[in-house]
Fold this sequence. Notes:
globular; Alpha-Beta Plaits; four-stranded antiparallel sheet; five-stranded antiparallel sheet; 378 residues; single chain; alpha+beta
Amino acid sequence: MTETLHARDERDVTETVAWALAGNHPLELRGRGSKAGLGHAVAAGHVLDLSRLSGISSYEPEELVLTAQACTPMAEIEALLVQRGQALAFEPPDFGPLLGTGGGTLAGALSCNLAGPRRFKAGAARDHFLGFRGVSGRGEAFKAGGKVVKNVTGYDLCKLVAGSYGTLVALTEVTVKVLPAPESQRTLRLRGVDAQAAMVAAANSAHEVSGLALADGVTAIRVEGPEPSVAYRLRALTDLLGGEPEVLDDAASRQFWREIRDVAAFSRFHDRALWRLSVPPAGGCALAARLAAETGGRSLVDWGGGLVWLEMPDGAPRADIVRGAFSEGHAMLFRAGAEARAGTPVFQPEAPAIAALSQRVRRQFDPQGLFNPGRMGG
């Protein structure tokens, strides 16, 4: 029977980890549970519930820096930033509807290195992750980074923790960079064009696009900024790309990109396997079309071709087909039933040298393998 241990603050976390170390009790680290279904099932008899570590610690709008307790709801952070005309530039997605869970937290987005459509321009979550406090698997509370971008004289531990899925450290507090929110936006939707060629042309133009996607056969290009600039760049892109143009106004554009960000098109059928492929952008559209045709599935392309979502027509993941379709990049089985997750390598298998390095890193932070054992496989 799983026992849930609740932490109110960093001291509680430290004491709980010390207890787990002494008795060799593996722990599943859990915030609000929104991403518990990502990766493999965790092999731990105890859950360390961190959800009470919530609240804004400090916010300095003039310095573009926000510090929050690790499990502060993303909705709370975004509501605060809106008041000052600022935003998290990496557009952290809300995968609650996609995974059948509730809303996520800031630490959850950072731990899984999740970013939305602006990723190809603004960078990944790790690029906005300035610092953190946490407790290692050795039972040691420590901090890394700080409140400015250039604050690292040694290892940049933030980039190491981002994407570790809670296997290195129990985060208790995180600091991120924020940026001014775009004043306005419009989206140019094109039919009758070569999607990949249109996205490459838009990305290589001087018009500073911030979203490039292919959804339901329609190529979408987002332009953000001051209204006069947005209008001018939109006209220039229309002239450059041709096709059959349609322009979404500000409100419709924001709604459209929220749906792309959250992969809302695939949130209806939770029993269908869903893949997330990161590949070289130049071949993303062709890969998506080929895999959809071969499997009978549906695809969505984001990041100008660099991110492909593939929903299977049923619960079978068909990993051999998906991973055999490309040679560069990686594929993650993002959503699947328990049986499929157990029988399929969820993350792209690592080369032996990389796998050995990953294991050495984990042992430095967590020698006994207490945190989220089995989540990343291996």
